[in-house]
Amino acid sequence: MSNIRSIRSSAPAGPIDSVTNESTPEPQRHVLPTTSSFPNPAQDYYEGPLSLDRALIPRAASTFVVRVAGEALASLGIHDGDELVVDRALNPRRGRVLVVIADGPAGREHRVGIFDVIEGQAVLTSDIETIALSADVEPWGVATFAIKHLLPAAARARLTAVPDPPAPGP
Amino acid sequence: MSLAAPRAAGRRRLATALIDVRCMFVSVERAIDPTLVGEPVIVLSNNDGCAVSRSDEAKALGVAMGQPWFEIKSRPHLAPVIARSSNYEEYGAFSARFYETVASLVADLECYSVDEVFTSLPATEPGQASSYAAAVQQRVKTWTGLPTAAGIGPTKTLAKAAQHWAKAHGQTLVDITEWPHHEVEEMLAATPVDDVWGVGSRLTRALAGIGVHTALDLARTDPGVVRRRWSVVLERTVRELAGTQCIPITEEPEPRSRQQVMYSRMLGRPVTTREEVVAVLGQYATRAAQRLRRHGLQASLMQVWISSSRFRSVADGGQRHHAIGVALDPPTSDPLALIRATRGLLDRIEPGQPYNRAGILLTGLVPAGAQASLWQSDEPGAHGTAQRERLAEALDRVSQRFGREIIGFGPSGLRGPKPWDMRRDLLSPAATTRWSDLLTVR
User: Fold this and answer.
1) What radius of gyration do chain B's Cα atoms show?
2) CB within 8 Å: B442 and A67
3) Any idea what DSSP says for residue B375?
4) pLDDT in tens, A59-79
5) Which of residues 268-287 of B touch A (CB under 8 A)?
6) ipTM of the complex
7) Comparing C-alpha atoms, which of B63, B97, B103, B102 is closest to residue B80?
8) Which of B11, B7, B44, B6 is CA-nearest to residue B26?
9) Which of A84, A164, A165 sits opposite B441 (nearest CB)?
10) Contact of A20 with B383, CB cutoff 8 Å
11) Spatial distance between the Cα atoms of B388 and B404, rounded to a whole number of angstroms
């Protein structure tokens, strides 16, 4: 028992009171568990747990996560309900997945497709349409990663039972 | 005292820029909903009360700042106006994007408000500061979608004046360090003194008494006289208007903001019973405690108040306003201690009165753990302090992970919207801050 505690808190084992009564330790990041006698030799090299944020969002200021509605990117294996990580700081190049703002039935909206140049004309091609990138189509960002859902919705719901924050109060 | 002309003065290598997001709240709404671009859009205050941010199109239609929403709705010529409730989650997230984007291009940055930053820009060659500012503005637009305006001057006070002038003349970039001396003077002469950064309405009246009406009048006042008669603060403003840098760009906000923690809100619906008041105050105390702990602070004094509508007629008994001050010894950020301290107010309230505003102000702030208790105790109760501290931390972590209303104390801890929570009927989705609300692409 006291052994477990000393591993968790790296504090000397002692009577329970001395543990509950101690002032809260400074929060330490990226500290591996140590035993009381030997320092963990990996400590100097440990950079913390894997972080998807760090790996997929190197530039938070310009990066947005958007949800794909429909099957415009079906031939890339990206389907309705999958998410795209989009970086607005990147310039479009041929072959990149590009998000633009264009006119739709209900006004301006975000559209997605693959950026291409056909016979000198910049276009956005997808499985449902090809949009000419004229002056009234505004490039918005370049997709850098896709989050593809591999579980059926119900299984996913069970797995990620962490709810979104409810509508916050004042 | 004559105005120092920065260019003529020679070697100034840095200029000061104030960059701000144009009608911030409306611009964020447009960034997450492109159908709003080009439309007359307004954002409403808490509880959808009145217009607090207006697009140029809404201004052109004649929507006034602070105009009540019920009034706008009733005017036929304002029918095209599209209103949104205040989406604080998104405004906060976009504000952070704005700061970070500017910071990616400049060396120093002072986040002055949610939509304004001060920074220094290189100004060794003519046109250098403005081309730098233009590059920052372009990047903010590309990365975040937010439009900005920039004012550049030799000092912070003059940068603020330049930004003011830019807004008044519908320009997005004004660099007065490039202006000839007499044009700067003309601009200052056309600026009423109460528009000068740091001059409030009380000072304006006092300054009028010595014949100072415009920014130029103030710039030409003897700084020594101003210091003796008013303060060093106003003396700095005078010197800055005359072109001498006195207020440095700091990376931290003014310490003033750390001298108190305020949590005060209008209730969405009036509360009338003792039980409801207990719950409201519990909720507010918990939030205020969270704020304290986020800044690593403990409070020594709590003021808590609750009041009924200002507009209750005398026949109805007039407005009620009850307040108490509670000394907290030792200083604390423990939500339970703060909640307990609010209970004193319950003896004052009159059940049946429609209370519609409550607030908590915490002052006498000290760094957590800096001050020992006056009555340090070795009794078993002392254990409780450490335990409660850990309880508070655990609560913070739980609500950070699962959402603000997921856990709480007693009557205020129930999940779900409470009737007195802010009314936000026209709320846009939390498109960049919540998974369920993400922007969609087709």
Assistant:
1) 25
2) no
3) T
4) 889 999 999 999 999 999 999
5) 283
6) 0.73
7) B63
8) B44
9) A84
10) yes
11) 19
